[in-house]
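Data deposition worksheet. Section B asks for the primary sequence of the deposited chain exactly as it was used as input, without tags or linkers unless they were present during the calculation. Section C holds the resulting structure in token form. Section D is free text for depositor observations; keep each observation to a single sentence. Incomplete worksheets are returned to the depositor.
Section A, Depositor: J.P.
Section B:
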Amino acid sequence: MSAVRDVVTVLEGAGYVVLPKPLTIAGAEFEFDAVARGARHSHDLVLVATDLVPRQRLQRLVSGLARSLDLEASRRPVSLILLGEIASPDRIELERYARVLIISFANPSVTEIEDAIGVLLPLGLPEAELVHGGDPLNDVLGVLGPLGASPDHISLIRAAQDGPEAVRESLRRYVNDGTGWNDAEATIE
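Section C:
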């Protein structure tokens, strides 16, 4: 089935390793349309099945696989990618043992597959543009404008160049000046 091949291709492109069929765990064999395991960013065991598999058989396969993984003390989460439609009660039963991802399109495109199984795929971040920005403190002064930068602003901005402690000290002096507080008066006898 070409949809299964397309799903496998997307998984391989995301770093999953396709496992041979049938999958054997704890001496038991499990026949799915395809099986892959995460290698880099994911630890999932991903099962691929179509809606041509009778629901009861699929439920027995998935529950038996989950029990076999438990016997082997596996910590791999199991995800089932189901190509086709599924009734809500059947889905609920499958979700007892695996994360169920449905691809309900007859002939899904790669984009539709990626959208449906997105939780299994690494996040694609946009290319970062290499921008040589200016000095952030000068940027703050630019936003404040020539009339907005008071001596107090400039004092805090200059203190920022020396780190958070210098900013705290500058802010403490600013507050003390505003309230008329004198550090010398604060000594306890």
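Section D:
The chain is about 45% helix and 15% strand.
The beta strands are 17-18, 23-25, 28-30, 34-37, 45-50, 78-83, 99-103.
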